[in-house]
């Protein structure tokens, strides 16, 4: 009903009135023939639609909007939910939030509702005819069968009609300078000075000339099971939230949407907490840090760049149409979803033609993902599973197997490579000393020259369960091109925030601590997670004079208790969080 009111307010055309009239007819017929199925709370909205259709009420006029809001306020649903009135008033008073594309979507939604109502009515008639079947009367049964076939054809025609004709997405008249200029401006807006880097310099080079992700492109990373797919999905969400420099429409907040179809939200959240803290401080989360302190610290880290990170867990019935609806739902909250990460492609419900086989359905889903990125100018990232051929290759004893992967090793669909803008393979490999590395192998980059050969492979060392893969963006390049001769294998990059004493003010303010959680308290040693340097003893501070002590004592109020500073002892063990 809110969609119908929005359409009535912002599209005062005969086509709109015809749709609303059909909608009203469905309601009136249902009220007459099956009143128990109606929601009485919706009565006020049907009355408003009736005023628009039959009394020429104009919901684009302020006086009419105030009358509508008063009517909703005095209705049962308005009394039970006062915030609804504010929501309706804000919606109707904001014409800037309703563009032509949004109006077309509203029309389509209402048309689909009308179609489904008509099909439901025809189905009831078919069921009624089926109940007339008489096994002893062949002649009557033939008539019943013909009647049923006629109604089924009517239903098919109704469904096909509701789809409507194909619509032109965009148009350029190459003989009109103004039309060409609009296209040029649109292209420049898509290829502006925004930056979407990853936290790994080697991966940034592999991603092409933008040295990171680009809006309007669909990216896929493929690996075998338990080879860092879910962890990389979360790392990409982290990077796009904290490192991206992006532009949004006025009044909208940039946001990254991370959708998991495999891992529970709580599990992903704990991993994201671990990633944020170790990226920021290069140390394990201290055992004596409270949950409240950790939540403030990590929230400040993810929010420092002005973007919002939305983490969602969806069930196995989540399909492409559900993805579009989810994006639309959150963008109604004044967010601009500039990046979508789905973990992972093969777990989504496939909405393609039932006559298609599984690989064809997945290829069509990948094609839809590509269209979503290109048409809405978003970064879309997903992941693919490698098949048994990749397992055989991995167990063959060969080295640098990520360089040997190709489209033939994809499990769900070999043709997915045709649909993506970027494809890379991943594998956790070990060198002769059994040191693990995350390796990346380049496969495809659409519409631009592939990266130089030396940038089509990179590897990053794992630094234990706590640190995992360490970001090197903005610091020393820690990628390597040969894991069997990696001289700097034990090198840990500098803290991207700089020395602990120079941490950003927003992080300090959010944690409630001083400049360094590991070094601000006298006599407390910082957590020496990596054991690379011996812990230095802190110099003894000079005691204040007796006069200074008295001065400090006089300034304190009698009942005021000094808040205790947290003690950051070297942890005997980590806090229990580990990357998967």
Strand-residue proportion = 5-15%
The shape, in one word, is: globular
Number of helices: 20
End-to-end Cα distance:
45 Å
Walk me through what this model shows.
The protein has two domains: about 1-165; about 195-485, P-loop containing nucleotide triphosphate hydrolases (Rossmann fold). The protein is built from 20 helices and eight strands. It has helices spanning about 1-10, 15-35, 45-55, 60-75, 75-80, 85-90, 100-130, 140-165, 175-190, 200-205, 230-240, 265-280, 290-305, 320-330, 360-375, 390-395, 415-420, 465, 505-510, 545-555; strands spanning about 220-225, 255-260, 310-315, 335-345, 380-385, 420-430, 435-445, 455-460. Strands 3-2-4-5-1-6-7-8 form an eight-stranded mixed beta sheet, sandwiched between helices. α2 packs across α3 (about 45-55), α4 (about 60-75) packs antiparallel against α6 (about 85-90) and α13 (about 290-305) runs antiparallel to α19 (about 505-510). About 30% of the residues are buried. The model is unreliable at about 490-540 and about 550-580 (pLDDT under 50).
Helices and strands in order:
Elements: H1 2-10, H2 14-33, H3 43-54, H4 62-73, H5 76-80, H6 83-92, H7 100-130, H8 138-163, H9 177-190, H10 201-206, E1 218-223, H11 229-242, E2 253-260, H12 265-281, H13 291-303, E3 308-313, H14 320-331, E4 335-343, H15 358-376, E5 379-385, H16 388-394, H17 416-419, E6 422-430, E7 436-445, E8 457-461, H18 464-467, H19 505-511, H20 546-555
Parallel strand pairs: 1-5, 1-6, 2-3, 2-4, 4-5
Antiparallel strand pairs: 6-7, 7-8
